[in-house]
Amino acid sequence: MQVRALAFDVFGTVVDWRTSIVGELEEFGRNHGVEADWQCFADDWRAGYAPAMDLVRSGELPWTRIDDLHRRILDELLLGAGITAISDDDVDDLNRAWHRLDPWPDAVAGLTRLKERFVVTTLSNGNVSLLVNMAKRAALPWDCVLSAEIFGHYKPDREAYLGTAALLDVAPDELMLVAAHPGDLRAAADAGLRTAFVFRPAEHGPERTLRKPDDAEFDFMADDFLHLADQLGA
Amino acid sequence: MQVRALAFDVFGTVVDWRTSIVGELEEFGRNHGVEADWQCFADDWRAGYAPAMDLVRSGELPWTRIDDLHRRILDELLLGAGITAISDDDVDDLNRAWHRLDPWPDAVAGLTRLKERFVVTTLSNGNVSLLVNMAKRAALPWDCVLSAEIFGHYKPDREAYLGTAALLDVAPDELMLVAAHPGDLRAAADAGLRTAFVFRPAEHGPERTLRKPDDAEFDFMADDFLHLADQLGA
């Protein structure tokens, strides 16, 4: 196996979206004097994301960026929580919390090591501007910022995986997807990519225990990016 | 004026293609025991690039990456020079000289300063893999690697300029093209972008003196990236 490039899923794999979003929601609540179960609100916000992408995939919505899908879901959740007196600018600022997610503690150090040996790119359903703003804030050292937005196809559509290989000018089996989500990795494997599972048991918070998938299913199994770098000799 | 992002032309603006290509050709000649006027060869190689892109723009060729356009031109030039006994792998390696161009002396330091204040992206006709390889080798600190390849349109088509603004989620007049080429800047201005001219008098070598364009034509005139950073307060 000669892997030349690593493509990283971002939400949950590189960044701890839930802790960051809950923190931003709590701050929003304090600043605006509104209350809600912000942990639950964060989970509902995230849970709305896959169905929203399905509206795009089915053609019910034209191509719509994640920023705009996040905003649709947020508007519904705020309405449902009876929070209606917030200015559009302030809702927009809250929506951009997804641009301000903190990385997992190993992410920057692990990417820095992996970058010495491989091309490291994002392959996220997040839009390019979200990923660029996130990377600048968190000092994520990407070689390249690729997104579903560039391919006009959300993962797990195969166009996203094959499009990444094509832009990086590598064969599909020279590209490895790194992700914390078995479904994403299975779709990548179906498209011919190599796969590395990174276990992020805390992605959904302390009350939802995640199970590690079977060792045999993916090319590499890692506890974090440093462990992956060890295994890849980076 | 509120500029939020800077898009950089690359060949000639960020990197000194001619010195690098002449050096690579001389090394190729020594390694293979072949001779030619390598300065002239380099100029002809570069000169073939605009007509080759025009074949794509006119539809005579389907979308073709710069790597493949460079290779077509190179094959013709080698044939014309009577250099015919080189293996395909060795010609391919020579063709990838365009991935190994050295930056102008101010480029890395200037980009590093500008990146503190602005999103800095490539906007090059070079393909993504070429730009990524170049950036890794030369330590160019891009936030994002955008290319005509992503838009399916070579500059100066307006889709390339407007597509960059769209992916970065900025208005056209919040994006500034930085380039050493007036034609590129004029097309960017026509699309609504801001413009910064950087004077690279040595781009075409010691025997072709370049003229600085009129001061009034572009938003900024800079002698190099450090001078541009000074003017932009970065």
UniProtKB/TrEMBL annotation, chains A, B:
EC number(s) reported in the record: 3.8.1.2
Keyword vocabulary terms for this entry: Hydrolase
Domain of life: Bacteria
GO molecular function, one term: (S)-2-haloacid dehalogenase activity
Cross-referenced SUPFAM superfamilies: HAD-like
UniProt cross-references to Gene3D superfamilies, sorted A to Z: 1.10.150.750, HAD superfamily/HAD-like
Family matches, as InterPro entries: 2-HAD, HAD-like_sf, HAD-SF_hydro_IA, HAD_sf, S-2-haloacid_dehalogenase
CDD domains hit by this protein: HAD_L2-DEX
Enzyme class: hydrolase
NCBIfam families in the cross-refs: HAD-SF-IA-v2 (TIGR01493), HAD_type_II (TIGR01428)
Protein name (Swiss-Prot/TrEMBL): (S)-2-haloacid dehalogenase 4A
Organism of origin: Mycolicibacterium vanbaalenii (Mycobacterium vanbaalenii)
Lineage, highest ranks first: Bacteria, Bacillati, Actinomycetota, Actinomycetes, Mycobacteriales
